[in-house]
């Protein structure tokens, strides 16, 4: 295992394998949960739904010493336009990946039919502080479904309805979630970037060569809506977990941020 630290936030950790990356991220998330539950009654956390998170979630599901009954779970985005019960829904994916595997105290899923503008979900999120967010970075640099160039780094909303760009929709096909781009919905409900950054601690898991350019630009390029993940540099307690395929090349380490 190798570690690569980039000055400032976020802390960056690079691992030889995706498996090792996921296991370490899960151990760190579990440690954070145990520490918070030792000093507060409840932990509220938000999860990303994506194959990139599978290694971490598999390990987190079997982590020891976490009182899941005092954890309330949210997720960060959901498609609009998919039928109820569609397996591609992010709530359904997270159910299989984690929510149905641990005895969570509460699970709040985005409801595209009953809450199409996300207002009720925003109210649930605002009811108390969010402690932890487990997230990833998209191939186009998105956070949740805040796609470039329309992402709003200073959005005043907690939840928004957004139009998905073509790169995001194509990534869903590459991830094996849909058979063709035309089958991927064009709109989604998403937590905004400021809502994600309002959490106390961020754990960002980003494996794979397809993410290398986005990670490089997020860490070493301008802080811009063209690379929404660059906003992670605004957070004081964010850790980025990479494998060697997604890590920026050494020559970018001294690039201007």
UniProtKB/TrEMBL annotation:
Alphabetically ordered keywords of this record: Carbohydrate metabolism, Hydrolase
Taxonomic lineage of the native organism: Bacteria, Bacillati, Actinomycetota, Actinomycetes, Pseudonocardiales
PANTHER family: GLUCOSAMINE-6-PHOSPHATE ISOMERASE, GLUCOSAMINE-6-PHOSPHATE ISOMERASE NAGB
SUPFAM superfamilies from the UniProt entry: NagB/RpiA/CoA transferase-like
Enzyme Commission number(s) from the entry: 3.1.1.31
Residues of the Glucosamine/galactosamine-6-phosphate isomerase domain: 17-234
GO terms assigned for molecular function: 6-phosphogluconolactonase activity
Domain of life: Bacteria
Record bears the keyword Hydrolase: yes
UniProt-recorded name of the protein: 6-phosphogluconolactonase
Any matching Pfam family: Glucosamine_iso
UniProt signal peptide: none
Source species of the chain: Pseudonocardia nematodicida
InterPro entries, sorted: Glc/Gal-6P_isomerase, Glucosamine6P_isomerase, NagB/RpiA_transferase-like
């Amino acid at each position: 295992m190798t570690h690569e630290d980039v000055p400032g936030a976020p802390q960056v950790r690079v691992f030889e394998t995706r498996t090792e990356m996921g296991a370490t991220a899960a151990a760190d998330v579990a440690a954070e949960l145990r520490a918070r539950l030792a000093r507060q009654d409840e932990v509220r956390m938000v999860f990303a739904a994506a194959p990139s998170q599978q290694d971490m979630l598999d390990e987190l599901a079997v982590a020891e010493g976490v009182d899941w009954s005092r954890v309330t779970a949210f997720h960060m985005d959901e498609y609009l336009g998919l039928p109820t019960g569609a397996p591609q829904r992010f709530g359904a994916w997270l159910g299989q990946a984690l929510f149905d595997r641990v005895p969570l105290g509460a699970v709040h899923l985005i409801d595209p039919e009953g809450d199409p503008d996300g207002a009720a979900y925003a109210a649930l999120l605002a009811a108390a502080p969010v402690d932890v967010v487990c997230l990833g970075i998209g191939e186009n640099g998105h956070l949740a479904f805040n796609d470039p160039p329309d992402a709003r780094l200073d959005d005043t909303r907690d939840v928004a309805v957004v139009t998905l760009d073509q790169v995001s929709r194509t990534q869903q096909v590459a991830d094996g979630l849909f058979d063709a781009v035309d089958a991927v919905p064009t709109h989604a409900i998403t937590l905004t970037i400021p809502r994600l950054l309002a959490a106390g601690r961020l754990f960002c898991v980003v494996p794979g060569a397809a993410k290398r350019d986005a990670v490089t630009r997020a860490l070493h390029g301008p802080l811009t809506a063209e690379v929404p993940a660059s906003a992670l540099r605004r957070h004081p307690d964010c850790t980025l977990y990479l494998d060697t395929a997604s890590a920026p090349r050494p020559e970018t380490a001294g690039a201007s941020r």
